Amino acid sequence: MSRPGTRFRKGPKDPATGRWSRPRPASGSRPARFAHEPAATGPGPRSGAGPGTRDSRPGAPTQVWALVESPRAILSPPGTVRTPGLAGVLFGAADYAVAAGCRITSRAMWYPRCQIVTAAAAAGIPAVDTPYFRLDDPDGLRQEALEAVELGFSG
Q1: Closest CA to 91 of 62, 54, 133, 49
Q2: For site-directed labelling of 108, which of 70, 74, 82, 97 has its Cα 20 to 30 A away?
Q3: Segment 27-40, tens digit of pLDDT
Q4: Could you count the other beta carbons within 10 Å of the beta carbon of residue 27?
Protein backbone atom coordinates (compact mmCIF):
# COMPACT_ATOMS: atom_id res chain seq x y z
CA MET A 1 0.00 0.00 0.00
CA SER A 2 1.31 3.44 -0.86
CA ARG A 3 1.69 6.26 1.63
CA PRO A 4 -1.15 8.81 1.79
CA GLY A 5 -0.82 11.44 -0.91
CA THR A 6 1.46 9.35 -3.14
CA ARG A 7 -1.14 7.61 -5.27
CA PHE A 8 -0.87 9.82 -8.35
CA ARG A 9 2.79 10.81 -8.31
CA LYS A 10 4.39 10.01 -11.62
CA GLY A 11 8.09 10.43 -10.96
CA PRO A 12 10.71 12.02 -8.72
CA LYS A 13 10.23 15.46 -7.21
CA ASP A 14 12.18 18.22 -8.98
CA PRO A 15 14.21 20.04 -6.29
CA ALA A 16 14.25 23.29 -8.29
CA THR A 17 10.46 23.58 -8.71
CA GLY A 18 9.16 21.33 -5.93
CA ARG A 19 6.86 19.63 -8.46
CA TRP A 20 6.54 15.95 -9.26
CA SER A 21 7.84 15.20 -12.73
CA ARG A 22 6.57 12.72 -15.29
CA PRO A 23 9.04 9.88 -15.88
CA ARG A 24 11.04 10.28 -19.06
CA PRO A 25 11.08 7.37 -21.53
CA ALA A 26 14.37 5.60 -22.15
CA SER A 27 16.24 6.64 -25.26
CA GLY A 28 14.62 5.16 -28.36
CA SER A 29 11.52 3.92 -26.52
CA ARG A 30 7.99 5.00 -27.18
CA PRO A 31 6.65 7.65 -24.73
CA ALA A 32 3.57 7.00 -22.62
CA ARG A 33 0.19 7.91 -24.15
CA PHE A 34 -1.97 10.48 -22.44
CA ALA A 35 -5.54 11.48 -23.25
CA HIS A 36 -4.49 14.96 -24.40
CA GLU A 37 -2.17 13.57 -27.10
CA PRO A 38 -3.66 12.89 -30.54
CA ALA A 39 -3.98 9.27 -31.63
CA ALA A 40 -1.30 7.81 -33.86
CA THR A 41 -1.92 7.81 -37.57
CA GLY A 42 -2.24 4.62 -39.52
CA PRO A 43 -4.87 2.14 -40.58
CA GLY A 44 -8.15 2.31 -38.67
CA PRO A 45 -8.99 -0.05 -35.83
CA ARG A 46 -10.64 -3.41 -36.38
CA SER A 47 -14.38 -3.44 -36.73
CA GLY A 48 -15.93 -3.57 -33.28
CA ALA A 49 -12.75 -2.47 -31.50
CA GLY A 50 -13.42 -0.86 -28.18
CA PRO A 51 -12.34 -1.09 -24.57
CA GLY A 52 -10.55 -4.31 -23.85
CA THR A 53 -9.80 -5.06 -27.52
CA ARG A 54 -6.42 -4.72 -29.11
CA ASP A 55 -5.48 -4.23 -32.73
CA SER A 56 -2.19 -6.06 -33.16
CA ARG A 57 -1.46 -4.92 -36.71
CA PRO A 58 1.85 -3.06 -37.05
CA GLY A 59 1.24 0.69 -37.19
CA ALA A 60 -2.33 0.40 -35.86
CA PRO A 61 -3.35 3.36 -33.71
CA THR A 62 -3.68 3.08 -29.96
CA GLN A 63 -7.18 3.84 -28.71
CA VAL A 64 -7.54 6.13 -25.72
CA TRP A 65 -10.78 6.02 -23.71
CA ALA A 66 -11.67 8.45 -20.93
CA LEU A 67 -12.81 6.89 -17.65
CA VAL A 68 -15.29 9.19 -15.89
CA GLU A 69 -15.66 8.23 -12.24
CA SER A 70 -15.95 11.31 -10.01
CA PRO A 71 -18.45 14.14 -9.50
CA ARG A 72 -15.80 16.58 -10.74
CA ALA A 73 -15.39 14.59 -13.96
CA ILE A 74 -19.19 14.48 -14.39
CA LEU A 75 -19.24 18.28 -14.41
CA SER A 76 -16.61 18.47 -17.16
CA PRO A 77 -17.49 15.80 -19.77
CA PRO A 78 -17.99 18.31 -22.61
CA GLY A 79 -14.32 19.33 -22.32
CA THR A 80 -13.17 15.75 -21.82
CA VAL A 81 -14.90 14.40 -24.92
CA ARG A 82 -13.35 17.07 -27.15
CA THR A 83 -9.88 15.69 -26.44
CA PRO A 84 -8.20 15.03 -29.80
CA GLY A 85 -7.95 11.32 -30.58
CA LEU A 86 -10.33 10.21 -27.83
CA ALA A 87 -12.05 6.98 -28.91
CA GLY A 88 -14.84 6.91 -26.33
CA VAL A 89 -15.98 7.43 -22.74
CA LEU A 90 -16.43 4.86 -19.97
CA PHE A 91 -18.50 5.39 -16.80
CA GLY A 92 -17.12 4.09 -13.49
CA ALA A 93 -20.19 4.04 -11.24
CA ALA A 94 -18.55 2.40 -8.21
CA ASP A 95 -15.90 5.09 -7.78
CA TYR A 96 -18.44 7.79 -8.60
CA ALA A 97 -20.81 6.51 -5.89
CA VAL A 98 -18.03 6.49 -3.28
CA ALA A 99 -16.94 10.02 -4.18
CA ALA A 100 -20.52 11.34 -4.31
CA GLY A 101 -21.58 9.51 -1.15
CA CYS A 102 -24.50 7.74 -2.83
CA ARG A 103 -25.53 4.18 -3.56
CA ILE A 104 -25.23 2.48 -6.94
CA THR A 105 -28.89 2.50 -7.86
CA SER A 106 -30.60 3.28 -11.12
CA ARG A 107 -32.08 6.50 -9.73
CA ALA A 108 -28.79 7.71 -8.20
CA MET A 109 -26.89 7.09 -11.46
CA TRP A 110 -29.32 8.79 -13.87
CA TYR A 111 -27.73 12.25 -13.73
CA PRO A 112 -24.11 11.16 -14.26
CA ARG A 113 -25.13 8.67 -16.92
CA CYS A 114 -27.14 11.33 -18.80
CA GLN A 115 -24.26 13.82 -18.60
CA ILE A 116 -21.79 11.29 -20.02
CA VAL A 117 -23.99 10.03 -22.84
CA THR A 118 -25.05 13.54 -23.87
CA ALA A 119 -21.47 14.80 -24.05
CA ALA A 120 -20.32 11.70 -25.94
CA ALA A 121 -23.18 11.97 -28.44
CA ALA A 122 -22.38 15.64 -29.04
CA ALA A 123 -18.75 14.71 -29.72
CA GLY A 124 -19.69 11.76 -31.94
CA ILE A 125 -17.94 9.14 -29.82
CA PRO A 126 -19.37 6.07 -28.05
CA ALA A 127 -20.17 5.95 -24.34
CA VAL A 128 -19.95 2.68 -22.39
CA ASP A 129 -21.94 2.28 -19.17
CA THR A 130 -20.62 0.83 -15.93
CA PRO A 131 -20.53 -2.94 -15.39
CA TYR A 132 -23.42 -4.51 -13.51
CA PHE A 133 -22.23 -5.53 -10.04
CA ARG A 134 -24.98 -7.84 -8.73
CA LEU A 135 -24.03 -11.07 -10.47
CA ASP A 136 -26.82 -13.06 -8.79
CA ASP A 137 -29.57 -10.84 -10.29
CA PRO A 138 -30.04 -11.53 -14.03
CA ASP A 139 -33.36 -9.63 -14.10
CA GLY A 140 -31.63 -6.56 -12.66
CA LEU A 141 -28.89 -6.92 -15.29
CA ARG A 142 -31.51 -7.02 -18.03
CA GLN A 143 -33.25 -3.91 -16.63
CA GLU A 144 -29.96 -1.95 -16.31
CA ALA A 145 -28.95 -2.94 -19.85
CA LEU A 146 -32.31 -1.74 -21.21
CA GLU A 147 -31.93 1.57 -19.34
CA ALA A 148 -28.41 2.01 -20.72
CA VAL A 149 -29.68 1.48 -24.27
CA GLU A 150 -32.56 3.91 -23.66
CA LEU A 151 -30.10 6.55 -22.49
CA GLY A 152 -27.90 6.07 -25.56
CA PHE A 153 -24.97 4.04 -24.24
CA SER A 154 -23.36 1.83 -26.86
CA GLY A 155 -22.10 -0.79 -24.44
Answers
A1: 133
A2: 82
A3: 444 444 444 433 44
A4: 5
